[in-house]
Amino acid sequence: MILTTAPIDIVVGVVLYWIGIGLAGLVRPLSLRFISRVLFPLGAMGGLVLMAAALLGIPAAPATRVLPLGLPDLPFHIRLDALSAFFIGLLGVAVVGISLFSTGYFRRGQGTAPGLLCLQYHLFLAAMVTVLLADDAYLFMVAWETMAITSYFLVTSSHKIPEIRSAGFLYLLIAHIGAIAILLCFGVLQGGRGDYTFAAMRESELSAFWSSAAFMLALFGFGAKAGILPLHVWLPEAHPAAPSPISALMSGVMLKTAIYGMLRVTFDLLQTQLWWWGALALALGLLTAVFGVMFAAVQTDMKRLLAYSSIENIGVILAGIGLTIIFHAYGNPHLAALSLVATLYHSLNHACFKSLLFLATGSVLHATHERSLGKLGGLIRNMPWVAVTALIGSLAIAGLPPLNGFVSEWLLLQAFLFSPGLANPYLNMLVPVAAAALVLAAALSGYVMVKFYGVIFLGQYREARLAEARDEGPWARAGLVWLSAACVLLGVLPVGVILLLDHVTLPLVNFAIGTSAARTGWLLIAPVSPERASYGPLLFLLGITGTVLLTFALVRRLYHGRVRRGDAWDCGFPAQNARMQDTAEGFGQPIKQIFEPFFRIRRHLPSPFDAQPFYSATSEDRLWYWLYLPVARLNERLAAWIGILQHGRIYLYLLYSFVTLLALLMFVR
Amino acid sequence: MPEFIEAFLSQLAQTLLVVTFAPLMLGWVSQCRAWLQNRSGPGVLQPYRVLHKLFHKDALLARNASAIFRSAPYIQFGCMVLAASIVPVVETSLAFSPAADVIALVGLFALARVFSSLAAMDIGTAFGSLGARREMLIASLSEPALLMVFFTPLLIAQSSSLTTIVDALAHREFAIYPSLAFAAVAFVMVLLAENARIPIDNPSTHLELTMIHEAMILEYSARHLALIEWATAIKLMLYCAIGIALFMPWGMVEAGKWPMFPIAAGILVAKLALAGAGLAVLETVSAKMRIFRAPEFLGMAFLFAVLGMLTRQLLGA
Fold first, then answer.
1. How far apart are the C-alpha atoms of A566 and B123, rounded to whole Å?
2. With contact defined as beta carbons under 8 Å apart, do A52 and A10 qualify?
3. So what's the pLDDT on residue B9?
């Protein structure tokens, strides 16, 4: 039956199905067993169906529907084209893993009741799919706001903790400032004709000025959701505050809806693209990437570290969008398609590995009740499943071959490397140097991931109680294994994905690289031509495993496999204990020292004569003090001026009414 | 002979050659250093003796060593062997070379490095994690510079595949390209940093606080240590080979020209010997610098590489 139904109807069906599951959670809101053992696995099935619908929908022609919902004269329009289908597939892949994991995750007594949590969770999923489906500004904004509000409630599900409440407030505030910009962007896009369907926006002819205004509003609005500098401050607060599956959803999937919106507005709704938009997006993206990874390197809380790493990845994706715009504006469709493929591929990859890592931190959190990196360590011995899957995720996010993170970074670098030849001499010189910033971010993310993985899973237990940590149950394992399998498969078999992405790039930048990339067979990708550059991840994997096994066998055969166990040597230093290993603080110290001007560091160093010495150091974001606090203070001052009028005495208010009335009478006389 | 089998055989021959003779190159560098320092030196075969000794010993592991610690040496060795089959050292008709261009090659080195850093943190000793963080720091600063170095030859050859670059560079007329000269200087600086040589790191140090690479492998013994040492030797040789391929590629065997092989091997040995001696001179005349001077050193390398690229772009030279 599923084969005869149009993909768009399947997707609508999944949206309704998720809403239904959410409502079912209200039937027995306190029964954790029913909700986690029945409803969440059922929700995961929806993800599988979405993946199938996406596979069918990407190559298919765009389908549209008008829903019997909305205002009397303003029905909801939906449309499934290759771009939406791709992002829906991305959501499906991530949701299967996250929902399976959630089955074993939620526990009793964590703030929000399980039934309510189930409702918010599935409404959040449904809203994200609706954002991707929407074909008019009205439905888009309704779904966008639903997404923001449901995720706000999910973030604040442990609402008894004041920090979580304030993190949630900051998130809601910036989400709404962004939403206003998006609304204004749609207002500009409809070009004064009052028709808010996307089909009408595609038709409207905007001047260069208004196109640029729409692009800037979209960059601001979607940038606020994606966490682009300087609108990133909510991200490292809100993502760690949420329960881990929610952090995974927000980082892995919700940020991608902002990327989707940016692509939709820039390449679909706007008809012309100017090169300087691309230069701006590129610069902003690289700045965001380097900023994010630098802050990730100095974090001591594992979820904050991952949140900053999300900022980095979003920066990389934005840089890819910027590069696409530049190439597209200069009429180089081949490279535009290449960088768009890299951008989309990286979005998909980030959805897989960031969800995986957030889920892994959830497991660690459950097993140890500890988020601070300074108190973890050695967990590979107690939690082998989590440790192995997290290793795959860490290697993938560090951009190492043959996993998926490397494929997208490689594609993006190819686009950078062949940029000379643009019609603009300044860009010709600057774009290659920008590639170095990208490599710096990628290399530093290797640093961050060694820190993340090494401090949590390797070494000695930093606290004695960590020895009692237990591995995850079968449901959570299934979720982790699903996502890590996605990381490996996307890494070693990229050609299939690139061929699929052709259907996405063709309508957006009028070119597809898939056929030329796959010319050398499914083993190798050669985005431009095999002589120029090629990469064969499967050969990589087979080569490394083959040599490792051969070496192992040879060493065993020619020599021996004898092993003795003893104490660690450590240069013969006798009194070693677990506190002598690097903490997260220590591991981040070189970065802090080299990039010191970027941080606002406050240190307390004890004097040698201190009887009770303590050491503390915090590295804060300068932008918070330079941008946000002044704006907040300005706001408060304005409010205080207006507050002068307010005294709470009734005669004053009567006086105000009287004066207003007199003024109005004089005015209209 | 079918083309594929020929490529495969030459592939195998080259990989075996590099893996076998890499310790010899290391021995040659040490011997040159010894001569320059007025010592008699242990002879160029010393690395082989050390490897032989280590392989025979019983491995001693710390009690809490995990599977990562035990598998990391094999993975590092595997990465280097794979890299040895990608870099055109003696010839350019390699069956494996389409599997990776220069960027993927850098990724391969990064994979080996990440595993060695993770293994260093596995035991949970102070020196291990100190070494790991320093290694990752140096690497993350040198990788942008390395990319910029690759940029200039890449612009000239219009390709990022090493074999194509070598073919393109070897066939132009013999002339000094200022852009390549800048890139070459930068490459040597990056080579020193990536291979843990003076002035960034000292491979023969025994002063714990200044160690980087050695601090990471403190806990290793016997066959594990042997594999790591061997992988290090292969890496040094490969870096020299990449340098040769990019900046003096003349005399390499091309596809289907087998009789050239002995001549090419002879030329290669001469080039490598020269490179090794040069490395020894560099290491003798400079002193190890503080770890926080390393950013300046690598920043300089980056600047040289950018200069090279701009020279190529603006002047076409």
1. 12
2. yes
3. 79
B144–A443 CB contact, under 8 Å: yes
Mind listing the pLDDT tens digit for each residue in A14-64?
999 999 999 988 888 777 788 888 888 899 999 999 999 999 988 888 888
Q: Nearest to residue A85, comparing CAs of A138, A8, A197, A6?
A: A8
- The answer to whether B126 contacts A570, with C-beta atoms less than 8 Å apart, is yes
The strand ranges marked E within chain B are: 59-62
Size of interface A-B (CB pairs under 8 A): 265
Closest in B58, B129, B227 to A564, CB measured: B58
Distances (CA, A) of A75 to A66, A528, A564: 7, 45, 74
How many C-beta atoms surround the C-beta of residue A184 within 10 A?
A: 16
Residues of chain A with pLDDT under 50: 1
**A177/B contact by beta carbon, under 8 A:** no
User: Cis peptide before A68, with omega less than 30 degrees from 0?
Assistant: no
Window 210-269 of B, Cβ < 8 Å to A: 218-219, 223, 227
Q: Are A353 and A396 in contact (CB under 8 A)?
A: yes
Mutation site, B53, B123, B211, interface A, largest A CB count within 10 A: B123
Residue B255 is predicted with a pLDDT of: 56
Cβ distance A417 to B148 less than 8 Å, yes or no, reads no
**% helix / strand / coil in chain B, to the nearest 5?**
75, 0, 25
In angstroms, the separation between the Cα of residue B264 and the nearest Cα of chain A is 23
Query: Tokens 């009052």 map to which residue?
Result: A194
Residue of B nearest to A411 (CA): B103
- Mean pLDDT, contiguous 10-residue spans, chain B (317 residues): 72 87 92 90 90 89 88 93 86 75 89 92 87 90 89 82 81 75 91 86 74 85 91 93 85 66 83 91 87 88 89 78
C-beta atoms of A533 and B161 within 8 A = yes
Tokens 């001047």 correspond to what residue?
A207
Residue B255 CB partners (closer than 8 Å, separation 6+): B3, B7, B91, B92, B93
Amino acid letter, residue A393: G
CA pair distance A56, A70, nearest whole angstrom: 28
Separation between Cα atoms, residue A235 and residue A115, nearest integer Å: 26
Burial zone of A275 (CB within 10 Å; 0-12 exposed, 13-18 middle, 19+ buried): middle
Distance CA A1, CA A14 (A): 15
Which of A406, A428, A435 is closest, CB to CB, to B107? A406
**Do B108 and A401 make contact, defined as CB atoms within 8 angstroms?**
yes
- Give the residue extent of every domain in chain A: 1-210+223-259, 626-669
A252-to-A249, A284, A396, A410, A516 alpha-carbon distances in Å:
5, 21, 14, 21, 30
Cα→Cα distances B273→A116, A275, A581, B277, Å:
72, 50, 41, 6
Task: Locate A536 and state its tokens.
Answer: 């064969």
3-state DSSP assignment of residue A604: strand
Across the interface, of B61, B78, B110, the residue whose CB is closest to A547 is B78
3-state DSSP assignment of residue A620? strand
Q: What is the rounded distance in angstroms from the CA atom of residue A480 to the CA atom of residue A488? A: 12
State the nearest Cα–Cα gap between A245 and chain B, in angstroms: 27
Neighboring chain A residues of B140 at a CB cutoff of 8 Å: 440, 443-444, 446-447
How far apart CA A493 and CA A187 sit, in angstroms, is: 42
CB nearest A576 (choices: B79, B107, B125): B125
Q: How far is CA A425 from the centre of its chain?
A: 34
Using the beta-carbon criterion (under 8 Å), do A439 and B147 form an inter-chain contact? Answer: yes
- Token pair of A639 as six digits: 């409010």
Cβ distance A539 to B141 less than 8 Å, yes or no, reads: no
